[in-house]
Amino acid sequence: MRKNTLRIFKFFVANIFKCLFLSLLIFSGCTEKEELLYINLETDALTFESKTGSQTIKVSSNGDWTILGETDWCEVSSKTGNGNSAVSIIVSKNESPDKRKATLIFRCGAEIAEVKVTQAAKEESLYINLDTNALSFESEDGSKTIEVSSNGDWTVSGETDWCKVSPKIGSGDLSITVTVSENETFDERKAMLIFACGAKTAEVEVTQAEDEEKWVLINGVKWATRNVGASSPEDYGGYYQWNSPTTNFLLYDDYYNSNYSKSTTWLPANDPSPAGYRVPTSAEMESLTDMTYVKYEWTTRNGVYGGRFTDRASGKCIFLPAAGCHHSIDGAFDYVGSDGYFWSSAQYDCVDGSAYCMYFRYGGVHRFGWSGKSLGLSVRPVAD
């Protein structure tokens, strides 16, 4: 009986140790299980322009990895790596008219990640062409069009105060308008318009003729359209002492001691008028102020005060600016913007050292007057 009991006890103890041993083996196997591999990329797509370029992509992994999928135009800086790293993707210039694609495969064990690479097609060469490279205008204001042919965005530069473009920016094929204001000068003028599309340019030279109407017939006399020395009808021009050919101003005593003051008429040799013109006679000056045939108005032209004299028969007119006068006593300018004084070629015999002139102001025009010869006044010439 005692032997059986002992045998049973030994069997029980042996089985307990076997169970403990198996449990330890199972536990040990669980703790030594292999860590799972992974690989991740910061992006799954890269886009390139058509030119040569490179971009960097970050790799996150816990093992060794390799890259597959390189092409003749798409390469990587390193085909293998380990753990976290960065790889440069390099593309060559695309000379093809089509965009191209590649897929790069990053493999870590059985795990993979992909990045799709796309490169744009070859850029089309920009161009800009015009239907003309020159525009010509008469002296009057006017406009003309230019046909623009382009495959990109473009701009126009080179505008001036008298030559304007609309529109100044555009894209592709378009018509633009070039507008010029009236040329009131005696000189031809030019502007250069430059059309730019990227680095490509095209030019148009704009030319406008000088004002051919240099005189206007008023009450039978051909009056110039601007003063001697002026560039436009509203420009004051020069201030001339009587019988002097220049604007070199002499003070009172110097003038009356000169030969200029001693003549009884404005000598042709001293006439400052341009070729084909001369200082008007007293009779011609009086004809401009004959209100039976001429209408006078106090007005402004481009912000300059003056008088407009209109032939009642033809409606033609001239503008005379109120330039005032230049005093010979102290060299000061006076009545500028309020009065206009204009010499005639005739001496005024009733007052010593004086000559006939015409003057006007806001209140009206004085048909005939006189002034001391030493004063600097305006000269509005007449055509022969």
Structural topology:
Elements: H1 2-31, E1 39-41, E2 45-48, E3 53-61, E4 64-68, E5 74-76, E6 80-82, E7 85-91, E8 100-108, E9 111-119, E10 128-130, E11 134-137, E12 142-150, E13 153-157, E14 163-166, E15 169-171, E16 174-180, E17 189-197, E18 200-208, E19 215-218, E20 221-224, H2 252-256, E21 277-278, H3 282-288, E22 294-301, E23 304-311, E24 317-321, E25 325-326, E26 333-334, E27 339-348, E28 354-361, E29 364-372, E30 382-383
Summarize the structure.
This protein is mostly beta strands and 384 residues long.
How many helices? The count is: 3
Number of E strands: 30
β-strand percent reads: 35-45%
Radius of gyration: 48 Å
| Inertia-based shape | rod-shaped
**Helix-strand makeup class:** mainly beta
Mean pLDDT: 90
**Number of domains in the coordinates?**
3
Distance between the termini: 167 Å
Low-confidence stretches: 29-33
Oligomer: single chain
Strand order of the largest sheet: 2-9-8-4-6
Question: Percent range for helical residues?
Answer: 10-25%
How would you characterize the largest beta sheet? 5 strands, mixed
